[in-house]
Amino acid sequence: MSATIIALAGYIGWTILLTLVLIGYRSVIVAKGQKAANEFSASGDDVTALGLRLTRAQANCIESFPIVGGTLLLSLAIEQQALTDSLALAVFAARLAQSCVHILSTAVIAVQLRLAFFLVQLGICLYWLTLFIL
């Protein structure tokens, strides 16, 4: 299996895992009678700080998928995974790191780290798109 496929499957799996953790987190709140299942804000601003960070990390994975996942899918569709294989695991690692930092903290340094990890992903995808065009 190519690194491109592993990175794509990893990204999808990571997003699913974050979604399941978020479901579990909210289910505990509902089970404790603290909220009804239909009372959660989509933004996550109506729960604890951890709940908010988890909500945003999960949403961020979904929001970024068209860029990273889309570029990986494009490479497979145009049979150019040889161009993406060398950095595919790096882009996936940056995605994981961005999510983990997002969940752990909203301190200024953490926000700056998240941006750095996002810029790594964005830069790699722009690099790949340039290679596809050339």
TrEMBL record:
- Record key words, sorted: Membrane, Transmembrane, Transmembrane helix
Any stretches that span the bilayer, and where are they?
A: 6-25, 115-133
Question: Which InterPro entries did the record assign?
Answer: MAPEG-like_dom_sf (IPR023352), Membr-assoc_MAPEG (IPR001129)
The keyword Electron transport is assigned to this record: no
Database matches in Gene3D superfamilies: Membrane associated eicosanoid/glutathione metabolism-like domain
Recorded GO CC terms:
membrane
What is the superkingdom listed in this entry's lineage?
Bacteria
Subcellular localization(s) per the UniProt record:
Membrane
Principal localization? membrane
Q: What is this protein called?
A: MAPEG family protein
**Native organism:** Planctobacterium marinum
